[in-house]
Amino acid sequence: MTPGRSPVVEHHTLALGRQLGRGGQGTVYEVTNKRINQADGGGWDVAYKEYTATVLPDLDAAALASQVDLLGELDAAEGRWLCDKTAWPAVVVEREGQACGFLMRAVPDRFRFAYQSLAGTTVQTRRLANLEYLLNDDTYVAGVGLTISERDRLLLLADLAAALARLHRIGITVGDLSPKNLLFTTDPKPECFLIDCDAMRLRGATVLPQAETPDWRIPAGEESATRTSDIYKLTLLAIRLFARDQTAADPTALAAISPALGDLAHAGLTTDPARRPAPTAWAEQLTTAAATASTAPATAASSPRKPHRPPPASTSPAPGHPGGIAHTPVGNQISINWPALKAFAAVAALIVVVAVFVATHSHDGSSSASHGSPHATHSQGSGSDDSGMPTRPSPTPLSAEDKEFSNVSTDDCLSNYTNMDRDWTPSTPSTTSCSDTDAYFRVASVLHSTACTSDDITWSHSNSDGTRTRLCLNRNYAAGQCTFAHAKDDSLFIYTNAATPCYAPIPDSYQYTVQLTTVYPDGASDDACGDDRLWKVDSGATLCGKAIRKHHGLPDM
User: Fold this and answer.
1) How large is the average pLDDT for residues 249-256?
2) What is the value of pTM for the model shown?
3) Which one-letter DSSP state was computed for residue 214?
């Protein structure tokens, strides 16, 4: 490292392992040959977030460097606290002197839980404990394997309120404060952990333009990522955590716990930012209410049934991965021992962004049971957890087809394909290894009461009980896959979402079948494909391919 400069490593020195997530801002990988903060008994396992080429022009490298530098500027106690409570960027990664991403540590294991499927299977998986799990009724919460009491809920909120107050004193505002960016634990005590920290604002500066999660937006006309906007969203979270609902704005359920909390909620939602109560006021009243709250775990009988919405796939490990980074570091070590961190092991979270793919062509099939269609809502990708939760049990038995959809989870890959003029083939989800050539789509999230983002390909299924399961999909590219294309002038336009077996007939709306020969997930130079054709897609990937079949009478391309 250069004296006086932020901790930096060159991209070419990184040995990247499996891809842990991909979204609109970038892709996250495990790193197998680097560790950071070696002063603390061997250092941390790390992950690398690489920004996509499409966001680099908007990237404020100085703001990213300032975030990394902050750890060295704080005193030891404040620095330790920040790394215990947030996923703070630790090292800038550069390519040829230009910032392209950063390193961070994996999520502490205490912020995971043993997830149980509502479909009745006995297999449990370790998943990140995203706070959005708790914005559902107690039947659902208990059904997925979480043990949460009323006191736990109050103390989780008190911990978050106190954390916000301390972040604000340091000069940090969260901005996109929503359940997808919050993890929780109750063991050994109730506490929260904030992720997506490169999206936060430090002393007024932000690494990338601010974005907000749908249903968690501040009032129109307000500046985003301010102390008062954080308080507004804290108020929404308090209301929804006790209403067991993801879109509620009525403080009635919270006021039933404590009239004082109800008063804070009414004040917190005012359109006059100056009148919103400080986080410290929230922390005080929440702690007071917790002293007399029930410690009995919530059960299926604790609350009435109502529709749930599972959390988005902001922080899901790759299939087969136990969650977090594999503990097999080899090769070179990075000795980065900031003054504020020498005396402790800082805890930062692995940010796994929501898989987001900007489709080059939309799909809208036509089936009474399942179809694909784009949606118009955009949400910022990053970091919260697995959203692949099956349809909840209901009085109406699930059909065999319903169960096929309910068994699909976030980060599953599907061998289903569609030419975008017909229904999906096969008509129900067929999972396969994500490394297989016919793994055409990866599941970004599984939703029930909300639509997928406009960047996702949606496969929607109507269940027998009147509910709906939406599979939000991204294209999963692999060499050997085929798609359809049409020619215009000297150009060949591929429809990347029209994944197809290479032998399938070409629909009348297309002219060619194109087979991918090489896939560069992080992009490549314009001459990377040699004699093959090259396409750059909005996910940041570069695709190489050649036209292998065409309608008769058309020229070769």
Assistant:
1) 95
2) 0.58
3) T
